[in-house]
Amino acid sequence: MPLYQAIVLAIVQGLTEFLPVSSTAHLWLVPFLLKWKDPGLTFDVALHAGTLLAVLAYFWRYWVEILLLGFGLSGGSAPQGAGAASHSAREDLRQNPRLLWYMVVATIPGALAGWRFERAAEEQLRSPMVVGVALIVVGLLMGTGDWWGKRERDLGHVGLLDSFLVGVAQAFAVIPGVSRSGITMTAGLFRKMTRETAARFSFLLSTPLIAGAALKKGLEIRHEGLPPEMRLPFLCGILVSGLVGYLVIAVLIRYLERRTFKAFVIYRLALGVILLALGWGSFHG
Fold first, then answer.
1. How far apart are the first and last CA of the chain?
2. Which own/partner contact pairs does 234-237 have at CB distance under 8 Å and 24+ positions apart?
3. Sequential DSSP letters for 136-181
4. Contact (CB, 8 A) for 109 and 170
5. With bands split at pLDDT 50, 70 and 90, how would you rate the model's confidence at 83?
6. Distance in angstroms (rounded) separating the CA atoms of residues 111 and 108
7. What pTM, to 2 d.p., does this model score?
8. Pick from 159, 48, 183, 15: which is nearest to 109 by CA?
9. Does residue 70 carry a pLDDT above 70?
10. Cβ–Cβ under 8 Å, residues 162 and 101
11. What is the C-alpha to C-alpha distance for residues 241 and 27, in angstroms, rounded to an integer?
12. In degrees rounded to 5, what are phi and psi of residue 193?
């Protein structure tokens, strides 16, 4: 795999894993348009590892708070610094000591869906028509939630039902084009979360599933080992997707504190129409 391709795909992964626009759609579209070969499962591991590092690096202080509170300990000693939870966000977490266990419950539907259906979905549903329809449907739902949502709840007021419903929504992310971040943020909006809370909760909830996906794919290739020619692209894939992903998380949360999901809705609809046109053209070509 040429190094420049690894860097381009890592940038695409870092951008689209956390923006609500579907990383699967873009990781299919870019090689398709540029006529590149499928990078394969090995490089998939690098991309998942990179985005896992990004979300852990940004939210590690949140996780310290959540874990300590979940086990009945004080979260007040977690340090502040760049990328840390703001004082108000930390106070929100302290109001919700059961959030850890709510998130455990919320992770179950997505974990079961990924374990049971991810491979079949990737092999049977990764087509322009399916991805295009998914982009448009979730885009319309996102726009509706953004418009009608009451935006009342912060992390301190996310309950068991909220978590479970967002977790059920996350299970649909096995369908290419749905987008894990897109569908979970949309569900959060319908559960009256503020836009930035929907984003934070989406990223926190994605952490164990991204870790599980990286581990699962890593175990699948463990016997083959890493070919010498893939070592540098693999390392670059991890570092670049991790760095880009971290920056995207930081920028997106700040963006959603002041603005709406409108730009992402428009982008999803436009890209969905383009993919439907490509699918229609290939079908009748």
1. 30
2. 234/6, 234/42, 234/43, 234/45, 234/46, 235/46, 236/3, 236/6, 236/7, 236/10, 237/6, 237/9, 237/10, 237/13, 237/43, 237/46, 237/47, 237/50
3. HHHHHHHHHHHHH----B-GGG--HHHHHHHHHHHHGGGSTTS-HH
4. yes
5. very low
6. 5
7. 0.90
8. 183
9. yes
10. no
11. 12
12. -75, 150
Q: Which of 231, 227, 95 is nearest to 153 (CA)?
A: 95
Q: Which two tokens stand for residue 44?
A: 């998939």
CA–CA gap between residue 145 and residue 184 (Å, rounded): 11
How far is residue 113's CA from residue 130's CA, in Å, rounded to a whole number?
18
Cα–Cα distance, 202 to 88 (Å, whole number) = 19
Residues 118-169: tens digit of each pLDDT: 777 777 877 889 999 999 999 999 999 999 988 888 999 999 999 999 999 9
The HSE-up count of residue 121 (CA atoms within 13 Å, CB side) is: 19
Query: CA–CA distance from 109 to each of 73, 90, 115, 166, 172 (Å)?
Result: 28, 27, 10, 10, 9
- Which token pair is 97? 């000591």
Alpha carbon 235 to its chain's center: 21
Structure tokens at 172: 């649909």
Q: Compute the distance between CA of residue 25 and CA of residue 130 in angstroms, rounded to an integer.
A: 10
Tell me the C-alpha to C-alpha distance, in Å, between residue 48 and each of 81, 84, 100, 104. 26, 23, 23, 21
Phi, psi for 153 (deg, rounded to 5): -100, 135
Separation CA 167–CA 101 (nearest Å) = 13
- SS3 for 75? coil
CA dist 26 → 57, 66, 191, 231, 272 (Å) = 24, 33, 28, 24, 11
Which residues are within 8 A (CB) of 202 and not within 5 positions of it... i.e. 6 or more apart? 166, 180, 181, 184, 185, 188
